[in-house]
Specification:
Elements: E1 7-8, H1 14-23, H2 29-39, H3 54-63, E2 64-65, E3 70-76, E4 82-87, E5 95-103, E6 106-110, E7 114-116, H4 125-128, E8 131-134, H5 137-149, E9 164-167, H6 177-188, E10 200-204, H7 208-217, E11 221-225, H8 231-237, H9 246-258, E12 266-272, H10 280-289, E13 295-301, H11 315-327, E14 332-334, E15 367-368
Parallel strand pairs: 1-2, 3-15, 6-9, 9-10, 10-11, 11-12, 12-13, 13-14
Antiparallel strand pairs: 3-4, 4-5, 5-6, 7-8
Helix pairs in contact: 1-2, 5-6, 7-9, 10-11
EC number: 2.1.1.192
Main location: cytoplasm
Cofactor: [4Fe-4S] cluster
């Protein structure tokens, strides 16, 4: 008998799950049932699906599977931040990271979309790694699945373990478009994770044509990694700016906002690097640049990594930069570093992780790093 490759139902969008059931001669409503089992109750095998007939369960068993990504390690920081290292399929031992950051009533999951990144921003450790491969939809939505399951059995009526998702882990989400869109649709779908579209955010360094595509497909919130108030500096820090300069990027942002069904803002991310983009005149220049855009600004003090060549600014300088923008009327937040003790801060993802032991067990024991 030839070995057929089973379809992994974990990564199928609602539409693709319907198509799958139709392709095997089953009714549409089966897709809803199975989707709830997988994404709301965390089912890993078909036996658990008690409202699905035995015959269908064994048929599904033969041709499909529910397979989450392989978790290499899970760490919990003193401040509650959780971090997972996930090994992707394909045999290269390629890993990505997922981080969950609790904050009062919120718990924000930072999700990766690629192993490495091709866009080579000068201050980003993922960029330094180069591009390895795209994550599959199951590997992307699987990060949400794993994070929720780490709290125990999934309970659709229990407290929400993940309230927000930001596509700010490794990789450029718009360079892995279809799998990212399918995953975000699942995050917001009522029969899956049911998150608010205001709480699912895609962050991009500015792949302009894909921003126009994105609004045709979904209405997630958008964050733009700007990092510079003019093209001259941005060309240096974010090389994709040479293809899609700031004016074109801001035009795409306006288009995105205008085509959303509700009134929202864009989040502008600005990583502050000492002596590079953090002086007062640059703050003023930024204030002028963004004056016509409905936006909030999030300042991220640079997170150092070995041989980066950049330094983070002093708190004083960061506050000054913030004040100039705030005085001009912007809402400006400063991202505080979380999960320092487990290297979970932005731009520190995976870094120098190598799993030399090639452990094969799926879920390695929960490791309390502070014990
Ligand atoms: N590729 C996407 C999303 C992943 S990066 C993007 O660039 O938007 C998520 C955020 O972390 C981006 O704003 C990125 O510029 C920022 N970042 C990357 N490296 C960093 C570092 N070392 N310190 C602080 N922020 C960093
Ligand atoms: Fe890629 Fe984003 Fe890093 Fe730039 S900042 S290299 S786009 S992951």
């Amino acid at each position: 008998m030839t070995d057929i490759k089973k379809v992994n139902l974990l990564g199928l969008s609602p539409q693709k799950l319907i198509e799958f059931f139709e392709s095997i001669g089953e009714k549409k409503f089966r897709a809803t049932q199975v989707m709830k089992w997988i994404h709301q109750k965390g089912a890993e095998n078909f036996d658990e699906m008690t409202d699905v007939s035995k015959a269908l369960r064994s048929k599904l068993e033969k041709i499909s599977e529910i397979r989450g990504p392989e978790v290499v390690s899970q760490n919990i920081s003193k401040d509650g931040t959780r971090k997972w290292i996930i090994r992707t399929e394909g045999g290269n031992n390629d890993c990505v990271e997922t981080v969950l950051i609790p904050d009062g009533n919120r718990a924000t999951l930072c999700v990766s979309s690629q192993v490495g990144c091709s866009l080579d921003c000068s201050f980003c450790s993922t960029g330094k790694q180069g591009f390895n491969r795209n994550l599959t939809p199951a590997e992307i939505i699987g990060q949400v699945w794993i994070a929720i399951k780490s709290f125990g059995p999934m309970d659709p009526n229990g407290p929400r373990r993940v309230t927000n998702v930001v596509m700010m882990g490794m990789g450029e989400p718009l360079m892995n478009f279809e799998p990212v869109v399918d995953s975000m649709i699942l995050m917001m779908h009522d029969n899956a994770y049911g998150m608010s579209k205001r709480r699912v955010t895609l962050s991009t360094s500015g792949v302009v044509p894909k921003i126009y595509e994105l609004i045709k497909r979904t209405d997630v919130s958008l964050a733009i990694s700007l990092h510079a108030p003019n093209d001259e500096l941005r060309d240096e820090l974010v090389p994709i700016n040479k293809r899609f300069p700031i004016a074109k990027l801001l035009e795409a942002c306006q288009h995105y906002l205008e085509n959303l069904p509700d009134k929202r803002h864009i989040t502008i991310e600005y990583t502050l690097m000492s002596g590079v983009n953090d002086n007062e005149s640059q703050a003023h220049e930024l204030a002028v640049l963004l004056k016509d855009l409905e936006c909030k600004i999030n300042l991220i003090p640079f997170n150092p990594f070995p041989n980066s060549g950049y330094e983070k600014p002093s708190n004083n300088r960061t506050r000054k930069f913030q004040k100039i923008l705030a005085d001009t009327g912007y809402t400006v937040t400063v991202r505080t570093t979380r999960g320092d003790d487990i290297d979970a801060a932005c731009g520190q993802l995976v870094g120098d992780f190598h799993d030399k032991t090639r452990r094969s067990q799926k879920y390695i024991e929960l490791k309390e790093v502070n014990s």
